[in-house]
Amino acid sequence: MALRDSLANYFGFEEHGTTLRTEVLAGITTFLTMSYIVVVNPSILADNPEIPIQDGISVPGYSYSEVVAMLAVVTIIAAAVATLIMAFYANRPFAQAPGLGLNAFFAFTVVGSLGISWQTALAAVVVEGIIFIILTAVGAREYVIRAFPEPVKFAVGTGIGLFLAIIGLQAMGIVVDDSETLVQLGAVASDPVAIVSVVGLLFTFALYARGIRGSIIIGIVATSLLGWGVAASGLVSGDAADALVAGGASATYDITPLAGAFVSGIADIEAFTFALVVFTFFFVDFFDTAGTLTGVAQIAGFLDDDGNLPDIDKPLMADAVGTTVGGMLGTSTVTTYIESASGVEEGGRTGMTALVVALLFLASLAVVPLAAAIPLYASHIALVVIGVVMLGNVVDIAWDDLSYAIPAGMTILVMPLTYSIATGIAAGIVTFPIVKAARGEWSDVRPGHWVLAAAFVLYFVVRTNTLA
């Protein structure tokens, strides 16, 4: 009883019209809806041994499954730390973890396409987090928001959704390479991986549409079991059977090869490219977090008469500190999860909800070995489901205004087609002032817009000449 009273007083249950039981149920609900990240984040960040080029984190002397297990531990710790700060400092029912989209940018663009070492990529995450902390501490949020074109901010979520979806569909064998058309439909009627993936994806969509709590993690586990079952039954054999199963579960909890690796990455910095990576991490993290906080806060009834979230700097600080700690430990940028809305809809109104989520993340350390037993095609079901959900952001764009539609459209199209979040953002930023100027709407263009556009044009010139 004393503990219950202490929690009620600390988090202000009476003030927010909630109870301990409601907060606990809300926390459980939020955790179930976002727990897939414990499996998905490691599968994205770990260097895929089946791809010739490095496209993520690999540690000499450690197997792929061991690296996945390390990353699962780091994912859990980073999520728990950030969400605990959200609970006790911000007293908001928002949960945090390494974000989808930015982990793909980390692995496929920064490490894969740009050829930057994963240690240097982690250094960029840490630097971005520190910048975020400083800007939040001095209250510079409004100045940062004004520096970026509005249509680009609204378009980023949709572009990332398409980017995630194509990554997931490729891993599932539903979309494959083609020398003439670039991509085409995979052998969904003959490839065992594609068949199992389609069944798993449709099953997961059905659960999600029904509003089943934990539908994504249920879908991932069910798809994994189906793949293992098909392989074990003898319906397929040889390479086809091997493709359906993952490596054996690894029980390593040693994260020392990852923790602090960003320090060695600082020595391997090429200034302009590093600045672009930091900029992209910051841009997506800042606006994704701000947008998510506003959206979930609206559901909770937290917004004031002007549509602003009071004391938003506190949850932003939780995000910034979580990102910094996560980068130091060995994972990509931490952000607030839109899945927090599920807990809010269950009645969660205080940091107690976030505290429950953080404790459940810590408890999930017990199942870390299972993360390495999830096949890639099964874990990437989450990318397709979340990618489809993120397409809903497109309704916020003023498509009847060409000065908005063109930059937003370029951001959305270029991002998945170039396999780069940064390039998509850059395309929108370069387009915005040009279109505005062409329409004579000079008052809508600030000097910062031209500076950012010029910087990206210079980057494209340097980068594409280098690639040539």
TrEMBL record:
A Gene Ontology term for the protein's cellular component: plasma membrane
Q: Which residues cross the membrane?
A: 67-90, 97-116, 122-140, 152-176, 182-209, 216-238, 354-374, 380-399, 411-435, 447-462
GO terms of molecular function: purine nucleobase transmembrane transporter activity
Topology within the bilayer: Multi-pass membrane protein
Which keywords, in A-to-Z order, does the entry hold? Cell membrane, Membrane, Transmembrane, Transmembrane helix, Transport
Q: Name one Pfam family in it.
A: Xan_ur_permease
Where in or outside the cell it occurs: the entry states: Cell membrane
Query: PANTHER family from the xrefs?
Result: XANTHINE/URACIL PERMEASE C887.17-RELATED, XANTHINE_URACIL PERMEASE C887.17-RELATED
Q: Which family does it belong to?
A: Belongs to the nucleobase:cation symporter-2 (NCS2) (TC 2.A.40) family. Azg-like subfamily.
Write down what this protein is called: Putative MFS transporter, AGZA family, xanthine/uracil permease
- Provide the organism lineage as a comma list: Archaea, Methanobacteriati, Methanobacteriota, Stenosarchaea group, Halobacteria
